[in-house]
Amino acid sequence: MPGFMDKDTLLKGLSAAAREAGEHALCFFRSGEKTSARVDYKDGGSPVSEADLAANEILRQRLEQLMPGAGWLSEETADEAVRLEKSRVFIVDPIDGTRAFVNGDPRWGVSVALVENGVPLAGALYMPALGEMYEAWRGGGAARNGHPITASGRAALAHARLAAPAKAFPELEKQGLNLVREPRVPSLAYRLAKVASGEIDCAIASTNAWDWDIAAADLLIREAGGVLSDLEMRPPVYNNPVPRHGVLTAAPVPLHGELVAAIRRIPGQ
Prior knowledge:
alpha+beta, 16 strands, D-Maltodextrin-Binding Protein, domain 2, five-stranded mixed beta sheet
């Protein structure tokens, strides 16, 4: 594999690829209405549209040009074991939040990350219908539309703004936390990006999130002063043979331990 390129070239390349794929998908998007794209359904019932597949092809072409020889993992590409032999792997979700996209909800995006030895190195999340581009580089901070973002300064879980599966709230309320329930965000990557930007204080992701759902947003959170971890306080590791995760928690560093402890008190966790 060629030597590593500089930060600006790589991050600009990631963002440009995400933007191109997102703008193409946007041609099929109809705000408040069903998409004009053809929609099929995978085993299990999740939708995939022609826009997903077209965005996937754009990303693969652009990212392979950016870093020839890197591995590849995408929701819309058949998995290839050769990625496990690579130290650097692109992990992408051409449309994170396909149901939202199909139904005219603007909260969907293109998620692109480069991981190195299982840890995110660079990431971009583009939300075409919202006009928002999130970018992060390991050790270089996180930004939205070119402006630095930081996680919430909240240090106590009581009254925190939480985005989480509906079933979690009654159990957490039993602990007397008086949490502010944030509206459901259909894109997991965007939900986590809102933790990075401080728009919400913390978030919970149900079990079975895939690498492509979280890799770019994970780096956004880290670089914005937050933490994404499992219930053992371990950060996600990417590019494993099965690229899937258990329950995940996202919060600013001072708040994270209390959030994890609260979730672990829920029966069955």
